[in-house]
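Researcher: Let's do a round of design. I'm pasting the structure tokens now; please hold your answer until I've finished.
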């Protein structure tokens, strides 16, 4: 089977300059009979030697596409106001020139596979082929959820920007081709359902996100005398509200509770934008280790026992959450942090209410900061059960988010297209 894959970024084992890891891990353990040629705009600016490495690792050919000059100009000079005036998102206006189309036609592919929600126009250049569109998230849902945050409604410019982009993506997703020879692939079930509200005739499928690299498999024990607690990701629009609420609640604890947390936990933050927030907690009496960058992310996170992800808004699957669970950390997060991850969730309130021994959970979801704080106060006296939960979560993710399994499910969509177009 021969596939032409068209993408804004060149696949890479980590997210580098864009969503490059997802397609990489879909391809790395694909069935042997699938031959892939990648056509990419290289928006993540991978150098020639790295591109050659990717070709060898994935056993693919990579051909570079030229971005239209006017789009380069807009992006180079950060002309946001012009982008806002466009009817559709800017990458929707990319299209392949005659030379690229001729090259792809010469490949005689069985399937044209497009990556990125904004590449529907490019896929429409190949209407005679069977097509797979890995969206992978509904950006319409993304902007819709952003509208519900306090940060958005309290900042005029942010509110206007979100509304305009929401309208753009309603137009985009409503215009997706619904012919019998195209199928859509989402990594978020809520994303898929929301897109279907915009465009009910889409042939849309939800398939789990594959896990990334794994360096730690098997039973683990939490560190003693202090459990190693890790908070990862950026402090940005996606985490402002949930993080601020949590940090404020931690700062307001009485001295006895603070002392207990300090005696039983070592708290590390890994990511950018956290300097001021870390200082807030330090002023409140906590000791915080802040790491803004690490060259080997997985090698670093396996040093910890529990990962926290207070995410306020988002769509799809959170790669850092998947990384943590697949490498044996116990994941505690908000509903958007754990969305679309197949590791049975138990709520913090259920645990605190006494249901912990009745549910074989693999992750913990919390609603309010006080729930999380009460849970952190509870864990040190019940360590073995939480260690078992981390193992349950890892087993579930390794099974249900297996790269080989997910890859087979994605490429099985081609078989569905064949049946539909007979």
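Researcher: That's everything. Go ahead.
Model: Designed sequence:
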């Amino acid at each position: 089977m021969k596939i032409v894959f068209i993408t804004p970024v060149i696949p890479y084992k980590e997210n580098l300059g864009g969503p490059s890891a997802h397609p990489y891990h879909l391809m790395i353990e694909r069935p042997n009979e699938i031959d892939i040629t990648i056509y990419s705009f290289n928006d993540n600016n991978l150098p020639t030697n790295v591109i050659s490495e990717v070709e060898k690792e994935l056993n693919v050919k990579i051909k570079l596409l030229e971005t239209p000059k006017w789009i380069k100009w807009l992006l180079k000079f950060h002309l946001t106001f012009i982008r806002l005036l466009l009817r559709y998102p800017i990458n929707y206006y990319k299209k392949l020139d005659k030379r690229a189309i001729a090259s792809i036609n010469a490949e005689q592919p069985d399937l044209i596979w497009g990556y990125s929600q904004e590449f529907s126009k490019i896929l429409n250049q190949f209407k005679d082929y069977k097509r797979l569109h890995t969206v992978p998230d509904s950006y319409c849902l993304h902007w819709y959820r952003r509208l519900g945050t306090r940060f958005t409604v309290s900042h005029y410019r942010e509110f206007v920007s979100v509304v305009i982009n929401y309208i753009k993506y309603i137009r985009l997703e409503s215009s997706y081709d619904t012919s019998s020879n195209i199928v859509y692939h989402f990594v978020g079930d809520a994303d898929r359902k929301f897109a279907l509200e915009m465009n009910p005739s889409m042939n849309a499928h939800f398939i789990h996100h594959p896990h990334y690299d794994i360096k730690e498999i098997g039973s683990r024990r939490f560190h003693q005398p202090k459990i190693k607690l890790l908070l990862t990701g950026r402090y940005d629009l996606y985490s402002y509200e949930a993080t601020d609420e949590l940090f404020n609640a931690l700062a307001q604890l009485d001295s006895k509770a603070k002392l207990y947390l300090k005696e039983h936990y070592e708290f590390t933050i890994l990511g950018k934008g956290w300097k001021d927030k870390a200082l807030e907690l330090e002023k409140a009496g906590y000791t915080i280790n802040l790491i803004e960058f690490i060259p080997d992310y997985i090698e670093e996170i396996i040093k910890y026992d529990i990962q926290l992800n207070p995410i306020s808004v988002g769509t799809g699957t959170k790669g850092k959450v998947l990384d943590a669970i697949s490498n044996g950390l116990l994941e505690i997060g908000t509903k958007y942090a754990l969305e679309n991850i197949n590791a049975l969730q138990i709520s913090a309130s259920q645990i605190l209410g006494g249901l912990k021994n009745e549910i074989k959970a693999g992750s913990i979801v919390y609603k309010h900061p006080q729930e999380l704080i009460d849970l952190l106060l509870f864990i040190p006296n019940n360590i073995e059960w939480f260690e078992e939960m981390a193992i349950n979560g890892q087993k579930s993710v390794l099974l249900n988010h297996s790269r080989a399994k997910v890859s087979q499910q994605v490429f099985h969509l081609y078989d569905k297209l064949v049946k539909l177009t007979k």
